[in-house]
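Data availability (excerpt). The following record was deposited with the supplementary files.
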Amino acid sequence: MRWLLWTILLVTVAWCAWWAIFGFGMKTALDTWFGDRRLDGWQADYASLDLRGFPGRVDADMTDIVLADTDGGVVINLPALQIGAPTYWPGNLTLVLPSDPISFVTTEGSSTLEFAQGAADLKLHPGAALELEQIATLTGPWSLNINQQTVLGADNLSLTMDQNQTTPARYKIDAEATNLRPGDAPRAALRLPDDWPLNFDSFTIDADIIFDKPWNISAVEAARPQPRQIKLKLAEAVWADLRLFFAADLEVDATGTPTGTLNIQAENWQGMLELAERSGALSSSLRQQAESGLSTLARFSGDPNALDIQLNLRGGMILIGFIPIGPAPKIVLR
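Predicted structure:
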C-alpha cells in the first residue's frame, strides 16, 4: 500500500513540474514572439498574461493586445485572446476569440469584426516552424463593420483547412456560412426592394490550393504563403432568385497573375443585371449591351434564363473565347 501512495505522490509531483515547465515555456514563447516583433519595428504589446487550466491543459489568457505594422499601416486591437493546449501535446492549439469587437485600422479606414463563441483548433507539426497541419474554425453569430457600418454578417461560420500529407504546401479548404446577410450599407448601395430576403439561402466554398510554401509561423512573422495553383471545385451563392456557381482551375505566377479557366453558372442572370443597373454599377446603355451579349450566350447554353460561361485567363487578361473583356485580377495575399 505504501508503494502505491509513493507512486501516486511521485506522479503527482512530476505532473505538477511538467505543467509548470509547459506553462513557463508557453509564456516565454509568447514574450519572445512579441519582443521579436518589436525588434522588427512593430508595436506589439499586451496588458496581461495569466496561466490556468491545471492539470489537463495550459491556457494563456491575454488581454488588450495591440499589433501595429508601422510600415504596412495596419493596426490590430484584440480586447482578449486565449491560447491553450492539452498538457500531453502542445501541438494541438486552441484559440478562443473575444466576444468584444476586434478592431482593424488600415490606410483605407477602420473596421471591426465581432464574433460570438469564436474559436479555432489548430494541429501543428512538431518543430520550431510550427507548420500547420489542420485548422478548424467555428463561430456563432458574427458581423463585419467598416467605418461604423455593417457590411456582412451570418449566424455562424465554419472553416476548415487541411494539409495534404504528400504535398505539404497543398491545403483543402472548405467554408460555409449559414444565413449570410449583407448589412444595411450594401443593401442600400444595391437599392434592393424592401421585400428582398435578408439572408443568402446558401454560401459554400470547396477548394484545393497549392501555395509556394506550407503555412507556418513565418506567415505571421514574415510573408504570407502565396497561391500557385487553385482548383475551385465549387463556390455556391444562392440569394432569393439569384443563383451563382463558380469553378476554376488556375495557375498563379510569382506576380499574382492567374492563367487558366473560370466557369460561371448563373440562374436568373437578368435579375443580376437589374441590380447592377439599380446600384449604379452599370449604366442603362451598358446594361442593354450586356443583356444583348449575355442573351446570346444563354441561348448557346440551352436555357435563356441561365448562363454557363467559361472565362479564359491568360496574358493578364480575361477572355470569353478569344475576345478580351478586361484585365485579370492579381491574386496576392497581403
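Summary of structural features: Helices lie at 2-39, 184-190, 218-221, 269-279, 284-301.
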